[in-house]
Amino acid sequence: MLTVAVTFLAGLLAALVYQKMFYPFLWADLGYYFKLRMYRKSLLARTQRGIITYLDCFLLQVRTKPDKTFIIHEDQRLTYRDVDRRSNQFANALGRKCLKEGDIVAMLMANEPDFIHVWFGLCKLGCQVAFLNTNNKSKSLLHCIRSCDAKALVVGTGLVHLVEDLLPDLKEDNTIVFVAHQSAPSEGFISLLDKLENNSTENQNGLPKVDIMSNFLFIFTSGTTGATCVLKKKFSASQFWKDCVKYNVTVVQYIGELCRYLVSHPRVPEESSHSVRLATGSGLRSDVWKEFAKRFGRIKIREGYGLTEASIGFLNYTDEVGPIGRASAFNKLSMPFELLRYDTQTYEPLRTTSGRCVRAQKGETGILVAPLTPMNQFPGYAGNKVQSEKKLVKDVFRTGDVYFNTGDLLLQDQRDFLYFRDRVGDTFRWKGENVSTMEVSEVLCLLDFIQDASVYGVTISGYEGRAGMAAIVLKADHGLNGAELYKHLVEALPSYAWPWFLRIRPSLDVTDTFKQQKGKLVQEGFNPDVIMDPLFFLDITQRDYILLSGSLYEDIVLGNIKL
């Protein structure tokens, strides 16, 4: 018996050593896999109990924890019961204004409690809500409202100025415009807050009948959910840790740029006396990651990746710095995906002579695609079947299969960690926002001295994402009017979409089908010692584009000039 026991222990020890050497993340992978299984089991149980939508989850909290704090905003604390009652008042008031189940309502509101109240009130009416980015202006904002075919628009008090110029267009579209204020600022708006006093805090409309496939939200930018939630009107690096201490925050959510601001800010006492245990988000650069973890205490960082369009996402549940997740065999069972080789000019997946796509090898960057299954559907983009169809890749590995093309480039290393590499197509990311190059090009070409424009993003050391740059062709007998261009950008685009650099070109390179070729432009960047074309830089202090000299270029790349 002793010999058997010794042999067993020796074999177990050998197996553990082998696992540690060749499969060091086995237990972490298994743990995460079983957590996902338990989560899905819990989700199924909730669904069987009729808890399907986010509104259902909220109302469950109202029933079970009515006095628990749900929202903290400045010095205001609201319980689940408080939010339920005020959202009922909004539902009753909006319901009397001819909104009904199935109507699409756009919301243009800032971070404030009434954002939640209006949203839930609309949900209780059965309306489908579209969240609008408060950075949008002018025609961009109008396009968003029209693209979701909104019957009504609810505007926050501080954002009325963004809508006033659009009122004639909205009236022509028969779009009702509400404002969350005691009185209407001008003709064309319908006030809401003055009507709440006369409405019951009980839901007088009943709840809509929905199922798991019912439309719930139209999202133009990433959205998040939580439990108790602390809202701020805007991010402040100087107040961040003070607020964490003040409100006893335990979990924070980030984009990479936010973390960079925090590590660049002078030290404050509160950064070492907080209760934050977890930071989760995306876009965190490795050097900032290390500094963040070193400086701000024992905070677990959980970098992730996700999409609003399809059910594909990753989470780095280990302490490895840099990855967005893992591609272990267990994880691919739960959430199948593939990385495909692609054409570096067109960004289309490469195909063999038989017409099938090719998997990228470990250590090779590829386009992330996910198979469409009964549990992983792509509902498409509202009102745009052409763009929806373009996101699908068919006959990938066999006839009839269909995959969703994320348009993102990822790399899987030899240890099965996944790294985000870039975003393809006509968008790039800057300051935590997606920039549409097509939209910026159209805005530039509205100026009478610009004939054509090609917009793209360029990398700058020390910054996440890519800064905007535009190669422009001037009209004959016209020069660059940087001051007028700056004024135009302020009026037409959010600041994150402004091109920081201009490159004056005699013409733009295009394909045989007149598609702009940007690959070479992106590679050449904005170095005046490499590029012979005239280059200009956006100087915010002068409200003008100034000539980009060699010394100015050095100041930018060294971080002496902040973008």
Overall body shape: globular
Described by strand count, sense and barrel closure, the largest sheet is: 6 strands, parallel
Number of strands: 26
Highest-level CATH class of the largest domain? Alpha Beta
The radius of gyration over CA amounts to 26 Å
Count of structural domains = 4
Question: Can you list the strand order of the major beta sheet?
Answer: 7-6-5-3-4-8
CATH architecture of the largest domain: 3-Layer(aba) Sandwich
CATH superfamily of the largest domain: ANL, N-terminal domain
Estimate percent helicity.
Answer: 25-40%
CATH topology of the largest domain: Rossmann fold
Distance between the termini: 73 Å
Helices, by number, come to 18
Mean pLDDT: 88
